[in-house]
Amino acid sequence: MASPMSADRFLDVLRTEGVTVVEVGDWRHHNRDHKGPWGPVHGVMLHHTVTRGSEHTVELCRQGHANLPGPLCHGVITKDGTVHLVGHGRANHAGMGDDEVLRAVIAEKALPRENEANTGGNRHFYGFECENLGDGEDPWPNAQLEAIERAAAAICRHHGWTERSVIGHKEWQPGKVDPRGFTMESMRERIRARLK
């Protein structure tokens, strides 16, 4: 069980890991905390945005839309490898997922196949939305993949977690396919190597 980092500490650990960070608006106080607590945190969840264009993507993830108010994550990782911080606190990104997956993340064990959506995840995961169409054809530039690796590793390093604390939305919630275009196994391997 871990308490979420303060906004200042979050920014510091990302920069220490070599992440290029842009602070967007009053991200430190932009959250959904009025819907419930943020924490304890147990892991990092990765998503793709199904959008094109960095400026549009960042604004959408910051503001949300009519059916889902923002922030939709804590950081938006654009194609150029920049992490745009858009929120700190509870964010609308994980939604409902599988309690068995959460237990596996907490225990840092192999993930079971997700088959139900019976547990809220927004309070338990740091979330990164990654700019990509999610069609399996839109490329993932090396700079972006490295930023994903560095950002996730930074959080794991701070909390003393291994790469097993990093999951994709598709591993949490039935019916989700994100992130699509790279495997979570390959990303966890990259994070594992970075944490050595």
TrEMBL record:
It holds the Pfam family Amidase_2. Residues 27-180 form the N-acetylmuramoyl-L-alanine amidase domain. SMART domains: Ami_2 (SM00644). It comes from the Bacteria. This is N-acetylmuramoyl-L-alanine amidase. It comes from Streptomyces pharetrae CZA14.
